[in-house]
């Protein structure tokens, strides 16, 4: 009997703590006039994903960027087997709009993005702001349901976009960047936030759900996403597709209240379970990242970086 129970525990335990993660990129085709131009960024990103055996990611896209180059960039992602998804037309802030205004912006993107072979009816709210009143939140949920969309929430939040800003500002200033240090900074900061939110999930759910990582279509993503994937796999994570991730039970979760500023699905669940502080990991802070970038990447004082 003891041997049977031990075998049962061995079989069940890994499943309850399975670490699975889908990778998504917001804001494509994002402005590209820094280290890479748009076509270079797309090529590097596609190559990095293929090299590291990432069969599919999702690019949450703004149709306002669909000039000739932007269309070609999204076509290249689509042709490589990746998902093109809806992130509104112009990336508006729902907190400052009516449901009707916001829905029109969403529907315009839906119309424009259907041209891509890889288009899927997944919608992510820009800034993760899904309605700062119950009326707005339920109103937009009804629009998504009517149009056959899935609310493409995230579980793993971070400020990779601000790391990109620090990187591009240094490049523009002609700073001689140590790319090994930049790589380590990028990977370490993201791994810290990933592990934090996974621990929060296990606290409140009793398990590690199918996670969705929020990244952005940026130069540092193209440069270092492969290194991030390597770090994840060393820690026992497996990479799954976004569509598989949204089959998790938490996809059906309905938060008890509204957020003016949403931390992501794990933060929603944690708040409903009574957690009041720490819904945003400490790395989601611009001043904090400036300090770490200065110390870990540039090895110079912060005030010299920001002059």
UniProtKB/TrEMBL annotation:
NodB homology domain residues: 19-240
Domain of life: Bacteria
Alphabetic keyword roster: Hydrolase, Metal-binding, Signal
GO molecular function: hydrolase activity, acting on carbon-nitrogen (but not peptide) bonds; metal ion binding
Pfam families in the record: Polysacc_deac_1
Gene Ontology CC terms: membrane
PROSITE patterns assigned to the protein according to its UniProt record, in alphabetical order: NODB (PS51677)
Keyword field contains Calcium: no
Signal peptide bounds: 1-18
Species annotation: Shewanella denitrificans (strain OS217 / ATCC BAA-1090 / DSM 15013)
InterPro entries: Glyco_hydro/deAcase_b/a-brl, NODB_dom, Polysacc_deacetylase_ArnD
Any one Gene Ontology BP term: carbohydrate metabolic process
Name of protein: Polysaccharide deacetylase
